[in-house]
Amino acid sequence: MLETLQNLSLGFSVALSPPVLLYAVVGCIIGTLVGVLPGVGPLAGISLLLPATFGLNATTAIVLLAGIYYGAMYGGSTTSILMRIPGEAASVMTCIDGYAMTRKGRAGAALAIAAIGSYIAGTVSVVGLMFLAPPLASFALRFGPPEMFALMLLGLLVLAYMSGGSMAKSLAMAALGLLFGMIGIDPMTGFFRFHYGLVELGDGIGVVPVAVGLFGLSEILLTAGQATPPEVLKPKLRELLPSRQEWRDSVWPIGRGTVLGFLIGIIPGSAHIISSFVSYAVERRLSRHPERFGQGAVEGVAGPESANNSATSGAFVPMLALGVPSGPIPAVMMAAMMIHGISPGPLLITQQPELFWGFIASMYVGNVVLLILNLPMVGVFVNLLRIPYPILYPAILVFCVLGVYAVNGSVVDVWLMAVMGALGYLLRKFDFETAPVVLGLVLAPMLEMSFRQSLAMSSGNYAIFVNRPIAATMLLVGLGLLLLSLRPILTRGMDWRRRLGHEANPGLEEGNP
Amino acid sequence: MMPRLLTALLVLLLVLPLGVGAQESFPTHPLSLVVPFPPGGVADLTARPLAPVMEKILKQPVVVVNKTGAAGAVGMSFVANAKPDGYTILLALSSISIIPEADKLFDRKPAYTLDQLTPIALISADPTVLVVQADRPWKSVKEFVDDAKKRPGEISFSSSGVYGTLHMAMEIFAHPAGIRLKHVPYAGGGPALTAILGGHVDALASGPAVVLPHIKAGKLRPLAGWGTNRIEALPGVATFKELGYENVEFYIWAGVFAPSGTPANVLRTLRDAVRQSVRDPEFKAAMAKIETPIAYMDAPDFQKFYDKDAKMLADAVKRVGKIAEKK
């Protein structure tokens, strides 16, 4: 404990030294911009800017990249809330209630809650990272394919709590998303599926073009189709801050989102993406007024935003403690370390204490910087809504195309976004929700990969899913949740019988005194 | 994105007035060095320091462009089908010879064929190393092979993906050793490493740089290397050749290619530029940091090396065969 504090003070002396601090601030600013640009998420941002760090020393390079990473996570919520355009997959859930809040004139409150939730989640999870990294990392490594499969299955069950509309429609949309996820190379045999001669489809459909199309473009198309243009919002200064009630509603979602996100984040693989989906579902499930979700419930912003930020820190746990490339973003960060001649590995903490503790301390600093940067920006961003639609929407379209193209430099992705925009328009016209499509698409490749890897490990024996304690426990929890979600169907049946009984009884009484 | 746009504009501006006369002097405008893998991988980390050094020599900007997708097929076919003028060149890894072969296996229209690309130079060649989980009992290749023969199909290994380089490396060893291992493919080298560290598989063929810290920490045990010579950082680890596996040789190499049909004078300029680049101290320092030994070969030698390597990999792909057909 004492040692940790000493180390931390070493870390702060590194993180607060002017050059490192400067790069932390620069990283946060770039990250925020990257996050605001629709389509360009943290991975694309870090990858595009990795070459720029070659001239720096190892610590500043890592601090800069980390700044970009969590800056992008903060920034991603901005366009989701203001324009219903998810900056990246993790902010899809923020679009739903965040944008609904904007339409009700509460954009400022939503942005402020998102920033503060992210700040709390970021800071708390760094504390977790600091004290729990080594034991948690060893535990996280025990997540092999069967555990991953069980986790993804739990993720799929989230669907049951995700939407307020018809269950059949959500399931249909999730199935559509899962089917989209089947496009691309079969991970076990190398067979190309549904690629129609396009090499670009070999890796499957990217989540980003689909999310931007289904959410952002469809919204623009729907607005264009209205007989009268929607009123241009004129936010007032005193409406920028969350109300007392909104604060009160956000406290627990932020807390739960933080813990949930951190735990999901430490698991190697790309599981962190589902943290915001799971958090949204948890909040909706626990809420006393689930019907408010989708109509601008502040909990639907606070929970997922906190979850995706603390998942960010969680993802660093296996990387820093064990030198394991636990996901695409930590893998890029590890490459950045290698360029500077540092081999990330289990001995990193002892061999490079300045880098490790400087990095940890810079995460505290970075979160403060982001809060200072983002809260005043709320006023600026909200004023973007004053721009009349004939100017705002074409501009958004241009940025969507630029952002989606920039990620892979692929025109196929831009077309994909356009097609998904049209599909999203049709689906929403027929009252289908589009979030389950994105969830399905996110889950499908991981679900398939982990399922088939598990069976490869066990030579085709399904017992592998119940013989491993972690996997078995998660499947059991999943079964429990499934039964719980069936309860309304059963109780609704009872209500119906009771109601009939009530209606019938008076008549009986009258007839037979 | 902006640099790309600027490059395109520059290219247009410069090409229009020069037209045909440009053949005499090369290069007259910026080059793009296409990396078919995402930033941060071996190919990218080789291309990044190479580009500025080539820039100094060619006196024209050399822009690294990551064109990713389908395990590199997107970027490779992009260069294979680019205009053969030397302004679009490729930095590829060993997997370049695997992809068309796998396409053949599935009767697909290949994304590109090997004769669409002309080798310019080999930059590096890193032998893979066989590592096993430290908890597992095998202390030597002999013990490993003996056990694998006793329990065919039970000892498992992870790889960067089916028909990927790490899968092929293992196949190149398993076939002459007469053993059958259980293959659990992952999406990339990173997840494959995570899997063995977590104990979900028993063995892995990997580039030495990424496993070295885990070997030092005692989490993984190296058994043998695929190179002709021992790996510098692991002097105590024998090569398969030393252990009597004559033809077990495999390198993750990185080489520069141009589209076939590129004029001879342009190829000569490019070859000279790469030859001077690999001797540059800055480039050497950058490669030392990523612990990837430089193994320069000029076009004629590289062509021989590459032909042999491609044939060996083609055989390995054919031996593995179409996985879906097996029971």
What global shape of chain A is seen? globular
Distance between the termini of chain A: 79 Å
**Pair with the most extensive interface?**
A-B, 57 and 65 residues
Strands in their spatial order, largest beta sheet of chain B:
2-1-3-10-4-11
Percent strand of chain A equals under 5%
Topology, number of strands of chain A:
2
**Average pLDDT metric of chain A:** 85
Number of helices of chain A: 21
Poorly predicted regions of chain A: 506-513
Q: What letter string, H or E per element, gives the SSE order of chain B?
A: HEHEHEHEEHEHEHEHEEHHEH
Rounded to an integer, what's the Rg of chain B over CA atoms?
Answer: 21 Å
Side-by-side strand order of the widest sheet of chain A? 1-2
Total helical elements of chain B: 11
CATH class of the largest domain in chain B: Alpha Beta
Reported for the largest beta sheet of chain B, the result is: 6 strands, mixed
Number of domains of chain B: 2
Which key phrases capture this entry?
heterodimer, A: 513 residues, mainly alpha, 21 helices, disordered C terminus, B: 327 residues, alpha/beta, D-Maltodextrin-Binding Protein, domain 2, six-stranded mixed sheet, five-stranded mixed sheet, 11 strands, 20% strand
